């Protein structure tokens, strides 16, 4: 029986409907499915302008969202939706500044967990969507994948709507593996051995771009979970949790990562390489592997950024098991992301109506058709609108005992920043694992005191806006 953890994303049913039917699209609005009984009621007669901020600033998501907006506006001619497509890392700063003002966007993108959602809820920035989800006998709630929706629940209320479920995997070049005489590893020892064999043949084992600071932390993130287990790491990540990081396996995980850095298994000088450049290194076959999220699957497939000659050259595997680790060795690493409505929105009903439209099955299925991503709406993924990579990913999620959220999404923001800065310092040879964990524990202790004081005073901290 699968173990269900309230603060992680264990997705048992993802609405993968094999044998589904393709949907014709009107010629005047690409990507817009025809009206069906499954679509929510429109806001007929309503007027107003909605501002939507998102990190979907590249194709195919950018155009797919434009199609969603066009469809909604067609059904609601009095409502105008203005989309701001922002670069993901810049967005993290801009949205916090906007929420601190008097005119934040009506609808905005969030990562689930402490990274954004919980933080914004504490700051009073999100509209409680519970009444909308429970209306009409819970029809909207039932249309969404329950375990992803639970990740948008905090303090017994649901504050946002999940849209995509993302997990991280090792992508690998099948041709390079075959020519080098290496196979997909099942254990960490096998993984480091194959990296060593690739390096001996003058092949860069792993494309890594850590200019943005967060990509590299994903590897220690999984090592933490493999060594200690989901429940143990989540208890430490919680802003009001123990947070002492005294277990020696925190250092063990960073030591294991540091060994791969010192062995030269990554792109030279990864701190100066962007994530996009690392992806290009992979699809131009300058590196054998690329550890990344499922957001990149579409970029490496048909209609993506990679050339057609590469579309069938790659595959992916889950993070290998760590020998003698106490954690769940088959767990996936990932998290849901989605959208919330601002508590300050002047048009909350229209904003909610947009999210209902966006998560209706025909619209969600059209999004999958364009983007080949795992939309968290039942019936969104079919055999007609998905490729082999997406179907395989969906099956892995369906079979997963545990999906453990990424470290930076569950830690308090400044604690996560401390960890990512520390890992970047390790890569540069400027910091030791012991120093990194000491700084993380110290920052966590400060945050805990601040939050406890804030709770006692009934106020909010600056980090909550």
Molecular structure report:
The protein is of the alpha/beta class and 465 residues long. It folds into 2 domains: 210 residues, D-Maltodextrin-Binding Protein, domain 2 (3-Layer(aba) Sandwich); 165 residues, Periplasmic binding protein-like II (D-Maltodextrin-Binding Protein, domain 2), CATH 3.40.190. 43% of the residues lie in helices and 14% in strands. It is built from 17 helices and 13 strands. Strands 2, 3, 4, 7, 8, 9, 10, 11 and 13 form a 9-stranded mixed sheet that branches. Strands 1-12 form a two-stranded parallel ribbon. A hairpin with a 2-residue loop joins strand 5 and strand 6. Helix 1 packs antiparallel against helix 13, helix 8 packs across helix 9 and helix 8 packs across helix 10. The protein is globular and about 70 Å long. The two termini are 40 Å apart. The N terminus is likely disordered.
């Amino acid at each position: 029986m699968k173990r269900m953890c309230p603060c992680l994303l264990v997705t048992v049913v993802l609405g993968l409907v094999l044998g589904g039917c393709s949907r014709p699209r009107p010629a005047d609005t690409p990507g817009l499915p025809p009206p069906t009984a499954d679509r929510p009621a429109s806001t007929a007669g309503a007027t107003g302008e909605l501002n939507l901020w998102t990190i979907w600033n590249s194709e195919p998501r950018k155009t797919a969202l434009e199609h969603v907006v066009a469809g909604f506006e067609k059904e609601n001619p009095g409502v105008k939706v203005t989309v701001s497509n922002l670069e993901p890392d810049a967005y993290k700063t801009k949205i916090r500044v906007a929420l601190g003002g008097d005119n934040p966007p009506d609808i905005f993108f969030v990562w689930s967990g402490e990274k954004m959602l919980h933080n914004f809820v504490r700051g009073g920035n999100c509209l409680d969507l519970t009444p909308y989800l429970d209306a009409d006998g819970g029809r909207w709630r039932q249309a969404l994948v329950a375990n992803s929706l639970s990740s948008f629940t905090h303090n017994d209320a649901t504050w946002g709507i999940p849209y995509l479920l993302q997990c991280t995997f090792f992508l690998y070049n099948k041709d390079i593996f075959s020519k080098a005489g290496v196979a997909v590893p099942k254990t960490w020892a096998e993984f480091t051995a194959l990296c060593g064999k690739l390096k001996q043949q003058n092949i860069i084992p792993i494309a890594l771009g850590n200019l943005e600071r967060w990509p590299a932390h994903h590897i220690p993130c999984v090592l933490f979970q493999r060594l200690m287990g989901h429940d143990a790491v989540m208890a430490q990540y919680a802003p009001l949790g123990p947070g002492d990081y005294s277990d020696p396996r925190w250092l063990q995980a960073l030591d294991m990562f540091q060994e791969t850095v010192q062995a030269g298994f990554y792109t030279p000088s990864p701190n100066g390489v962007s994530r996009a450049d690392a992806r290009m290194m992979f699809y131009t076959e300058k590196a054998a592997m690329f550890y990344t999220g499922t957001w990149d699957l579409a970029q490496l497939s048909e209609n993506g950024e990679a050339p057609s000659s590469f579309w069938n050259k790659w595959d992916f595997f889950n993070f290998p098991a760590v020998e003698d680790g106490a954690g769940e060795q088959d767990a996936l690493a990932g998290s849901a992301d989605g959208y919330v409505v601002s508590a300050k929105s002047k048009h909350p009903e229209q904003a909610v109506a947009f999210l209902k439209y966006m998560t209706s099955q025909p619209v969600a299925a059209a999004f999958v058709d364009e983007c080949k991503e795992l939309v968290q709406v039942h019936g969104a993924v079919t055999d007609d609108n998905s490729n082999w990579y997406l179907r395989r990913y969906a099956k892995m999620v369906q079979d997963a005992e545990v999906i453990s959220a990424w470290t930076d999404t569950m830690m308090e923001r400044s604690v996560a920043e401390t960890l990512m800065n520390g890992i970047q310092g390790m890569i540069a040879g400027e910091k030791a694992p012991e120093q990194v964990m000491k700084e993380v524990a110290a920052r966590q202790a400060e945050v805990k005191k601040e939050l406890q004081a804030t709770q006692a005073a009934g106020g909010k901290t600056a980090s909550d806006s």
